[in-house]
Amino acid sequence: MKKIISFSVIAMSILSSCLKTNSISGTAAFTIVNAIPNGNPLLMNFSGSGMAKSINAFNLYGLENQNSGGIGFGSFFELASYTGRTNLTLVQNSDTLNKIFSGTFNFQIGGIYSLYLTGTDTLHVDTLFSKDIIPYFPTTGDSLTGVRFVNLVTGSNPVSVDIAGSPNNTPVLSSLPYKTFSPFQGFSANANAINNGYTFEFRDATSDSLLSTYSLNILPFKSQTLALYGTNANGLSVMEVNNY
Fold first, then answer.
1. Measured between alpha carbons, how far is 99 from 101 in angstroms, rounded to an integer?
2. Which band of pLDDT confidence, cut at 50, 70 and 90, is reported for residue 74?
3. Which of 73, 110, 121, 164 has the most neighbouring CB atoms within 10 Å?
């Protein structure tokens, strides 16, 4: 009996040691948004000291993780498991030898981050980086959905945002300069709101001219970013980016 007890204690001790050695300390979330006009899809290369990164190999993750297509213009890609000091290089899938972005980030465990790439073209890339604080919407009571707005149109005037059909086109946002996020706002996501929907109108805040419209995909208890992007010459669009 004593031998059995001793063996059990030793086995539990070994198992506990293995669990501690292999435990995962935590991750960060990172979203990359491609709003660079006149470019090809983007491929990613990461290196650093955190988890799931290759320091010595040039790994173009877009080849494996994005159906060999990369992050196309007007789309985004969500990643996890990157923490600590992290180097990121972005190239086009049509030209993997020339970088269009290179930067270093320090991702904290549990942090939520976004990198928006814009500009006039791939030779003149501009960036907007944020550590996101996502609002919490309780699942009791009237359901809500969170929305924030960002202006990614290089050289644009500030924009305003209203809901089509609202009295006197009352703006939900009166002035949003280039490369600026609005705060998250809560909009009703009950059955009536889902049936009627929200069509947001993006306007030039100076002239009030209509730039683009977007019908929101209502997600109760979750949040999204609506990004105005493109160029005045080639047309403007709105992209919906997940924040959950």
1. 5
2. very high
3. 73
Whether the pLDDT of residue 146 is over 70: the answer is yes
Rounded to whole angstroms, how far apart are CA atoms 214 and 240?
Answer: 9
Rounded to two decimals, the pTM is: 0.83
pLDDT (tens digit per residue) in 171-193: 899 999 999 999 999 999 999 89
Alpha-helical regions (H) of the chain: 2-22, 61-65, 191-196
pLDDT value of position 80: 81
Percentage of residues in the chain with pLDDT exceeding 70? 80
Under 8 Å between Cβ of 143 and 223: no
Q: Are 101 and 125 in contact (CB under 8 A)?
A: yes
- Based on its alpha-carbon atoms, the radius of gyration of the chain, rounded to whole angstroms, reads 23
**How crowded is the C-beta side of 60, counted as CA atoms within 13 Å?**
20
Interval 15-36: pLDDT, tens: 343 433 344 467 889 999 999 9
Q: Which residues on adjacent β-strands are paired with residue 237?
A: 229
Task: Please check whether residue 200 is in contact with residue 238, taking contact to mean a CB–CB distance below 8 angstroms.
Answer: yes
Cβ pair 36, 118 in contact under 8 A? yes
Residues 6+ apart with CB under 8 A from 153: 118, 159, 178, 211, 228, 229, 230, 231, 232, 236
Domains and CATH numbers, the chain: 29-131 (2.60.40), 144-242 (2.60.40.780)
